[in-house]
Design brief:
Elements: H1 8-14, E1 18-21, H2 24-33, E2 37-43, H3 54-65, E3 69-75, H4 96-110, E4 124-127, H5 129-132, H6 137-144, H7 150-154, H8 157-164, H9 173-176, H10 178-193, E5 195-201, H11 205-219, E6 224-228, H12 256-264, H13 271-278, H14 283-291, H15 301-330, H16 339-346, E7 351-354, H17 361-367, H18 374-382, E8 386-388, E9 391-392, E10 410-415, E11 419-425
Parallel strand pairs: 2-3, 2-5, 3-4, 5-6, 7-11
Antiparallel strand pairs: 1-6, 8-9, 8-10, 10-11
Helix pairs in contact: 10-11, 12-15, 13-15, 17-18
């Protein structure tokens, strides 16, 4: 029986991953007839990737599973510049030594997503500092810069937004030149690694087109670009490293439990879109969840997504622990928790260790970072937002006693419905 060829572009469309593609019909024809080299770039602006990067990684994985070779470009050089795309202010400039440290950490993370030992289509990681750090500025201006029209560059949305927004400080020449550097990345990889396709988030469209145009002008070759839908929060804003409440892939920056909880709390309005985009769960199963109303959290589409994503990023053992913690915090009565259960919580949720003496609640709320001042702490208490061992406390003069210390050591502090901190009394 002849195995049916998979149309990767159609698959990305069906999973609601694809946003834009250049010369779609021609690219589909090439992908149907041969294996290609493709790349996606990530700048090194932190020591970990975050969930905003996952769609690109998932897309690369789809291509690799079909025999294509994915190349990850980590921007050791471009990270020294900073991508201005749709940022209201210039990015913080980090040292080359710090960026090199981040390179090694993210390189290690990437080994969890792609196969780096599978023959001809083994994934490869490249640092663009390799070619930029020794590039002569006259070469860059004469050979690369001459192919870019400033008027055209200023009409790109990513640049225009910075130029016309009165709340920004404008754009520096350094940032303005970022587009040239990324375009040259594509040209370098095309010449030296025969890369014919670049993928990126939808905010990278302008950079990708610049790279395609540059390759056409320099090497007279046809290349292609794909952008993916951006992952947005419930309020419609983009997930990014510089945004608040970033969900990191590094377990030390975002614990597996918090990672699990993030997916568990995806709103109903976007949950089925996320199931399509982030997982390879069949459409039939997803549609079946969509058609039935189920109020049991463990049988919800959110729970399905939380299990899938936590296992994919943090492994089966951390998934089991995350599910146990969720059960202990939200479903078990606190008096039923064993001392072992409290130690499990202490090792996996936010916690503080304090001397076993008398503290008032307002001080504890500040120490736990639930609030920043006694005045704000008082407001939280009066608004019935604070719970001690799941018992609501509305007395602003409340002080902790032995009664509130389980097994003489543990007190579970909660703000609202979902913010926990476990106190360990030494």
């Amino acid at each position: 029986m002849i195995k049916k060829k998979i149309n990767i572009i159609k698959k990305l469309e069906n999973r609601n991953i694809l946003y834009q593609v250049t010369n779609k019909n021609n690219l589909c024809k090439i992908l149907n007839e041969q294996k290609i080299n493709l790349y996606c770039g990530f700048d090194l602006t932190a020591d970990s990737l975050h969930i905003g990067h996952l769609i690109q990684l998932i897309t690369l994985k789809y291509f690799q599973e079909l025999g294509h070779r994915p190349i990850i470009l980590l921007g050791g050089a471009t990270s020294l510049i900073g991508d201005p795309s749709f940022k209201l202010r210039k990015r913080k400039i980090n040292s080359i030594d710090l960026i090199n440290i981040w390179f090694q950490k993210i390189k290690l993370q990437l080994t969890n997503f792609l196969d780096f030992n599978c023959g001809n289509n083994s994934a490869t990681i490249i640092n663009n500092y390799k070619w930029f750090h020794k590039m002569d500025i006259l070469f860059f201006l004469r050979k690369i810069g001459k192919h870019f029209c400033v008027n055209h560059m200023m009409n790109k949305d990513s640049i225009k937004n910075r130029m016309i927004n009165n709340n920004t400080e404008g754009i520096s020449f350094t940032e303005f030149s970022y587009n040239l550097l990324q375009a040259y990345d594509f040209a370098y990889l095309n010449k030296n690694f025969n890369v014919i396709l670049q993928i990126g988030g939808s905010d990278q469209w302008g950079h990708i087109i610049s790279g395609i145009d540059l390759i056409k002008k320099i090497y007279k070759k046809k290349t292609f670009g794909i952008t993916t839908n951006l992952i947005l929060k419930n309020d419609g804003t983009k997930f990014g490293k510089t945004e608040k409440n970033t969900i990191w892939l590094d377990s030390k920056k975002t614990s597996p439990y918090k990672f699990f909880q993030f997916w568990l709390n995806i709103s109903d309005s976007i949950i089925f879109n996320f199931l399509n985009m982030f997982t390879n769960i069949s459409s039939n199963i997803i549609n079946n969840y969509n058609q039935k109303k189920n109020n049991i959290k463990q049988n919800s589409p959110q729970y399905l997504l939380a299990e899938y994503m936590t296992k994919m990023i943090h492994g089966q053992n951390n998934l089991v622990i995350s599910k146990k913690i969720t059960n202990l915090l939200f479903y078990e009565k606190i008096n039923n928790l064993s001392e072992k259960d409290f130690f499990i919580l202490f090792n996996n949720i936010d916690n503080i260790s304090l001397e076993n003496k008398i503290f008032d609640l307002q001080t504890i709320l500040i120490l736990s970072k639930f609030t920043s001042s006694r005045t704000k702490a008082s407001i939280l208490i009066k608004s019935n937002a604070i719970f001690i061992n799941n018992e609501n406390i509305s007395n602003i003069t409340f002080k902790f006693t032995k009664y509130h210390k389980k097994f003489n050591h543990f007190t579970l502090l909660r703000k609202g419905k979902k913010n926990f901190c476990l106190i360990y009394w030494k």
